[in-house]
Amino acid sequence: MKNLLLLTICYLLPLIGTAQDELSNPSFEEVLSLKTVGSPVLSPDGNHIAFTKSSADWKENRWDYEIWLSKDGQPAFQLTNTPEGNSGQIRWAPGGQWISFTANRGNKNQVYVININGGEAIQITHEEDGVQQYRWAPDGKSIIFTKSEPKAKDAKKRSERYGAYNVDDEEYRLTWLYTIPFDPYAQAPQELPCYDKDSTAVQNWPCIEWPKAEALIDSVDFTIRGFDISPDGKMIAITHSPDPLINSFFDADISILDLDSKKLRTAVNNPSSDNFVTWSPDSRQILYD
Asked: What pLDDT, on a 0 to 100 scale, did the predictor assign at position 65?
């Protein structure tokens, strides 16, 4: 046995030396160019998984994040392509037929959906200043999202004349809550002409417009830091603070919005920071820290 072990060691030593000779330290560029995956999200039925994959874009001096999809355990394929931006915030629509994501494709950060069987992504939101966080309603018929309050008129004029700037810790915009219907088969505005009201042309249909977002919480004196919809779809829990400044998270509280009555009630307002975590499966309790 000892002779066999010695013979094995003598046989492997030259191989180890050869392998070490072939190894080389990766360059700085090679390390930065390594592809990474993250943010995995399972489909509602657990059969598919979507995730992000990052790659280096040396020409544009940035990392590109795109969404990949593996169906039924098959090899993953790239689902999105946002050439000058990133795709993220992956969410499965109830039913698992659609995947939603956010991307900036030249018109600020908007919500898009794409069918898991292929096709082009459909833009759902068309907000002037883009979308921040979003969630699907449990019935899959609408999307709830947050966005910044509209710019003040004087701020717009100043921005147009002098460029965008804010006075640190004094000027900011609050974040509020909105909803928009989801209908991937609705007609787009360009599919029918929209004549001027003074035109003599005959028109037997109203002008088609993109769906408008409806405010759920706006014109309030606090900013929304996070939110989630109850499993029964009847309530929304929000974490909010007086303003979006960094240290204001110490004053964060939790409130519950009833979607039927549109009434907002305070649920947790301890002297310290309160942050919503998740709903109980029966929608009767919340977990927070």
From this structure: 93
Quick: pLDDT tens for 81-125.
988 889 999 999 999 999 999 999 988 999 999 999 988 999 999
157: Cβ contacts below 8 Å, ≥ 6 apart = none
Sheet of strand 109-115: strand arrangement: 87-92, 98-104, 109-115, 122-123
Q: Which residues pair with 135 in a beta bridge?
A: 144
DSSP H helices, 127-210, are: 153-162
| Confidence label for 221 from pLDDT (cuts 50, 70 and 90) | very high
d(CA 156, CA 163): 9
Pairing between strand 214-217 and 48-57?
Answer: unpaired
H or E element in which residue 174 lies: none
pTM: 0.83
Token pair in block for residue 244: 């979006």
pLDDT at 172: 86
User: What's the token pair of residue 115?
Assistant: 């069918």
Q: Is the pLDDT of residue 12 over 50?
A: no
Q: Which has the closest alpha carbon to 175: 110, 111, 126, 220?
A: 220
Tell me which residue has tokens 């013979």. 7
User: Which stretches of 164-204 are DSSP H helices?
Assistant: none
Report the pLDDT value the prediction gives residue 111, as an integer from 0 to 100.
97
Can you tell me the distance from the alpha carbon of 278 to that of 286, in angstroms, rounded to the nearest whole number? 6
Under 8 Å between Cβ of 273 and 260:
no
DSSP 185: T
Given a contact cutoff of 8 angstroms between Cβ atoms, the answer to whether 237 and 273 are in contact is no
